[in-house]
Design a protein that fits this description.
Distance between the termini of chain A: 28 Å
Order of helices and strands of chain B: HHEHEHEHEHEEHEHHEHHHEHEEH
Number of helices of chain B: 14
Number of strands of chain A: 0
Strand content of chain B: 5-15%
Helix content of chain B: 25-40%
Strand order of the largest sheet of chain B: 1-3-2-4-6-5-10-11-9-7-8
Oligomer: heterodimer
Largest sheet of chain A: none
Helix content of chain A: 55-70%
Structural class of chain A: mainly alpha
Strand content of chain A: under 5%
Number of helices of chain A: 2
Structural class of chain B: alpha/beta
Amino acid sequence: MSQPSEKVFRRMLEERGLKLDDKALSVALEGARHLKAEVARLTKYLLENPDKSDD
Amino acid sequence: MTDPADLSVFEAAAALKSGALSSRRLVEATLARIATRSELFAFVHLASDALAQAEAADARLSSGENVGPFCGIPVAVKDLIDVAGQPSTAGSAVLAGQVAKEDAPVVARLRAQGAVLIGKLTTYEFAMVGPDVNLPDPPARNPWNLAHITGGSSSGSAAAVAAGLVRLSLGTDTGGSIRSPAAYCGCVGLKPSYDRVARSGVFPLSPSLDHVGPLTATVAEAALALDVMTAGQGWRAASAAIGQNIRSLRIGFARNWFAEDPEANPSLIRAMDDAAATLSMLGAQDSLVTLPDYPIYEATASVILHAEALAEHAKLIENHQSEYGRLTLQCLAFGAAISEADLATARRAVRPLTNAMSAAMENYDLILTATTLTPALPFSAFDGERAVWTPMRTIAFNLTGHPALSMPCGFDDGLPLGMQLIAAVGAEDILCRVGHAYEQATDHSVQRPPL
């Protein structure tokens, strides 16, 4: 799971109409990268713990 | 003579029904109490028709009508939940001037009983993040120490109850927003089972995780409030088992969820061990339980929360971005990095995680663990530039939908600590039965802040 670069994240914010100053952007990027790391953790969890409810 | 503002809901209801007390007098006493404790910033609005509501309740009481237990009782509502005719701003300049046209259904149920909707309570902006000292409404302050936060986002809801301003407030809980301020302020906070309490008329943060519930001074009052809020919907009454002994109930003590965390406050660990011992002395069968690892629940819920929150705010951001608080906008921006595929991954994890939690709880009637790992932080820990996340053990049950109750279990340096009880979906009666028994056996819940 790749982490967004600042440039990519700026584009993501623009797509959502979000405008942040540099300081706020830096904090938001940190938070966004944390969430992406959580997604990677979930992907790993799902591989190790497949949902068998419908089996 | 007892100040009417100090009466429990049960005591006030009995006095109102007997004619020993009028709702008008009770509401006047409540308004006076609120005025003397304005330094808490618990309220953002007081109802201009509070006394008229009280007089209407008095008329119903004196007519001999078979009224419900909240007739004539003041109730305060988090400013995220609509109360007809009162401001509904979600703690944000974005919605400044907005007045609710209708009651949220949960409020309508209380109003139909004759409850006096006395005002709106401080919330973190859109229930997202706080405290933020740069918003139009100052953050609520902890009644036990005004230099400390209340936790949030139901910050005014907890401060108002803990300070004795009202006995019942309504709050919302998406990741712990009822339970953590209840723990930090020393009151009871009940997050019901998912979908037990209607969420319409409540500004959404993350619809998959949002819950509405009561904050009260005692467990029995929380149970009563929940029953009124959900009557006739087929749920087991939360108050049905209040007063029953807890002998032979099987309690799983999830000690590893907090005691092995280096952030856990030593006083909290001691208080939790004491709570487990107290429940054991009351006849419950305590044993240690290993719940699934907490961080994976937090990860799943965080991804869902941020993705859903940004989607909920898309329209407002388009038109009112400059009016958002800095911290809220920063937090909403986290979600911009979450793709639809990421969100789908998180949603796929919910069922196996819920099944794993239910399986771990299967051999127990309820689980005991900590609500938060520390007492409330001081305001000085917050610089207004970035959010500070305090360690909690709450959001897992927003994800799984299990009901959870936070209640006082001790103090550290004059600040309250909270323990959390969790049960199977729909088993709020067991939570309240055990919580009430614990409350009766200890003196934590009768402590009052030094205001």
